[in-house]
Amino acid sequence: MPAKPPLHILLCAPRGFCAGVVRAIDVVERALEKFGAPVYVRHEIVHNKYVVDALRAKGAVFIESLDEASAAGAPVIFSAHGVPKSVPAEANARHLISIDATCPLVTKVHRECAIHHKRGRRIILIGHAGHPEVEGTVGQLPDGAVLLVETAADVAGLAPADPEKLAYATQTTLSVDDTRDIIAALTARFPGIAGPPREDICYATTNRQEAVKAVAPRVGAVLVVGSPNSSNSQRLKETAERAGCPYARLVLRAADIDFPAFEGLRSIAITAGASAPEILVDELIEAFRQRFEVTVESVMTAEENMFFPLPRALRENA
């Protein structure tokens, strides 16, 4: 049997679950313990098929509309991405038991936007149209109170009624570099625009992108474990490309790896989006071990010890 070719894997750290994702998954599991199945979850609790399928097997029912919740008194969980204000109001009108799993760092953005609105400022939200976090943030305020921009070029097209009364906020899972460019364009055009006391992009998004920047120039390929609808996972792939890696791919599972593309490579890097479980990283490494003589080196660029408590309704019964 021919010897397997050598392959050195740089394993990014931090990677995988962030505190908000851990909390959201715990919310669903604790609600199932407390109420029994079914527990309804509006939208995917986090953007990862493996996680969603595992919770579905335990009795979680994922819905896109509260019409799908079968009866009054049923528990319904709002995903980590947050929801418009109209959703809890509708749940209350339907006599459903609302449990909010919104990441506290997303809630922080909601509160900042509400304060700016109260002070008479129009909010410019930097984010991706159609993403549930953006829909949830926009839905905190009356129609027209929030303007959405996706790129620095979009800033030139803004025509606010009062350019002196503006504030900006951002989606928490964006590219740090892209967002910096958009903020620069906003402040250049509207010098008096108000911003958040601390940046809105979450610590986990920033840390995972910095880890990828550290390894991408050293390897021939970067694999990001994550779902296509995961914003932070997509940004990790883009970060690797910008940092000079010639081959960067987003994969759900080991079965998605295009192994012929790795022929002749001596080193690669692996990371995982904030909603991807570590078991899928292990699965990728094992798949490479079957084809290569693998060595693994952990590259840590930051330490994380963030923790978010469960919602009060579930904490009291912990």
Quick recap of the structure?
This protein is an alpha/beta fold. The protein is built from eleven helices and twelve strands.
Task: Describe this protein's structure.
The protein is an alpha/beta fold and 318 residues long. It folds into 3 domains: 6-17 and 203-300, 3-Layer(aba) Sandwich (Cobalt-precorrin-4 Transmethylase, domain 1); 19-103, Rossmann fold, CATH 3.40.50.11270; 105-189, Cobalt-precorrin-4 Transmethylase, domain 1, CATH 3.40.1010. The chain has helices spanning 19-35, 49-58, 86-93, 104-118, 132-138, 152-155, 176-189, 203-215, 231-242, 278-289, 312-315; strands at residues 6-13, 39-42, 60-63, 75-78, 97-100, 122-126, 146-149, 166-170, 222-225, 248-251, 267-272, 293-300. The strands form 3 sheets. The chain has a 5-stranded parallel sheet with strand order 10-9-11-1-12, with helices on both faces. It starts with 5 loop residues before the first strand and ends with a helix.
Give the SSE layout.
Elements: E1 6-13, H1 19-35, E2 39-42, H2 49-58, E3 60-63, E4 75-78, H3 86-93, E5 97-100, H4 104-118, E6 122-126, H5 132-138, E7 146-149, H6 152-155, E8 166-170, H7 176-189, H8 203-215, E9 222-225, H9 231-242, E10 248-251, E11 267-272, H10 278-289, E12 293-300, H11 312-315
Parallel strand pairs: 1-11, 1-12, 2-3, 2-4, 4-5, 6-7, 6-8, 9-10, 9-11
Helix pairs in contact: 8-9
Backbone shape: flat
Q: Biggest sheet, strands in spatial order?
A: 10-9-11-1-12
Find the CATH superfamily of the largest domain. Answer: 4-hydroxy-3-methylbut-2-enyl diphosphate reductase, catalytic domain
| Approximate helicity band | 25-40%
Please report the first level of CATH classification, the CATH class of the largest domain: Alpha Beta
SSE class: alpha/beta
Instruction: State the end-to-end CA separation.
Output: 55 Å
Low-confidence stretches: none
How many domains make up the coordinates?
3
What would you report as the Rg, rounded to the nearest angstrom?
A: 21 Å
CATH architect. name of the largest domain: 3-Layer(aba) Sandwich
